[in-house]
Design brief:
Order of helices and strands: HHHHHHHHHHHHHHH
Radius of gyration: 20 Å
Number of helices: 15
Strand content: under 5%
Number of strands: 0
Distance between the termini: 51 Å
Structural class: mainly alpha
Length: 305
């Protein structure tokens, strides 16, 4: 029965795509523009470099340096500092990719991986400050406020859950990790290949989500604001863009934007699910943390404002 329902739903979805083919094509083009102009340039270099650094044993080096800090703040292993730092710099869904890579390399346990996902959901700082602050709102201060509320929300979640999910530290010597006999050329080639595959996965997720919002808008008579809110909860970039153009108070615009950023949107959730699929890393804690993150970020934004 479940398969029949799924097949019928997909056939209905396909029919809607055929009916609204022109609008669907526009949405896919818009998805490609988002990917080409924002996602690929900001994530590709970090994805490649992170894989190379992991293979060369950089995680163990950062682990030794930041172990006291991570253990004190979040009660996680030193190796988790790599995911935390790289996620701040590159933005989501990099946190899921880095977490999965460390788990596959047996540098962190499944419990720690699930915990890490909960408080490393950072949007790219250049996207918040540049695209949202300067391009969409033409106000750098708004970008700074959104960045602070969004980032501090993650820190608070990390502290709130520091006693949850007991961590099992995995002992792996740096010498053993660096003794990897893979040729540097092979490491770079594999890193490029894996990064491109991950980015194509992200493009597919964005495209599907934008097609979904297009079909929803064509089938339901919603107000412009309600439609834009749905867009933001499905795909962050389009939601933030259209909300910034709404004729509503600026404070409400900022609240909606920080909710979109902190919740992540269906597109990000699909990407995270895809990256942790086939592993025992749990998705539900990540989902619940995003709801909490949205609430905390709104409170912080109101305090900052």
């Amino acid at each position: 029965m479940k398969k029949i329902i799924l097949i019928l739903s997909l056939l209905l979805f396909l029919l809607q795509i055929l009916i609204y083919s022109n609008d669907v094509i526009k949405s896919v083009r818009f998805a490609f523009d988002i990917w080409k102009n924002n996602v690929f340039p900001s994530l590709f270099p970090f994805f490649v470099l992170s894989e190379i650094l992991i293979k060369l044993g950089f995680v163990e080096i950062t682990g030794k340096i930041f172990k006291p800090v991570m253990k004190f703040l979040f009660k996680t292993s030193g190796e988790s500092a790599f995911v935390f730092i790289m996620s701040i710099i590159s933005g989501n869904p990099g946190n899921a990719k880095y977490t999965r890579e460390l788990y596959d390399q047996k540098l962190i346990s499944k419990e720690e991986a699930s915990k890490l996902l909960m408080f490393t959901h950072f949007c790219n700082p250049l996207f918040i400050l540049g695209t949202i602050g300067m391009t969409f709102f033409t106000n750098y201060q708004i970008g700074v406020k959104l960045l602070l509320a969004h980032y501090l929300g993650n820190f608070i979640i990390g502290i709130l859950i520091r006693n949850k999910y007991p961590i099992k530290e995995i002992k792996v010597t740096q010498e053993k990790r660096i003794s990897n006999e893979e040729n540097i050329g092979v490491i770079i080639t594999n890193s490029l290949f894996n990064s491109i595959n991950t980015l194509l996965l992200i493009l597919g997720s964005i495209s599907i989500c934008l097609v979904l919002t297009t079909i929803i808008s064509k089938n339901f008579e919603l107000s412009l604001l309600a439609n834009n809110i749905i867009n933001g909860l499905v795909e962050v970039t389009q939601g933030v863009k259209y909300v910034s153009l709404e004729n509503i108070p600026i404070n409400l615009k900022q609240i909606l934007c920080v909710i979109f950023l902190s919740f992540g949107g269906l597109s990000i959730h699909l990407q995270v699910l895809s990256m942790i699929s086939g592993s025992p890393i749990k998705y539900l804690p990540f989902f619940l943390a995003r709801i909490l993150h949205a609430i905390i970020s709104v409170i912080l934004l109101l305090i900052i404002s």
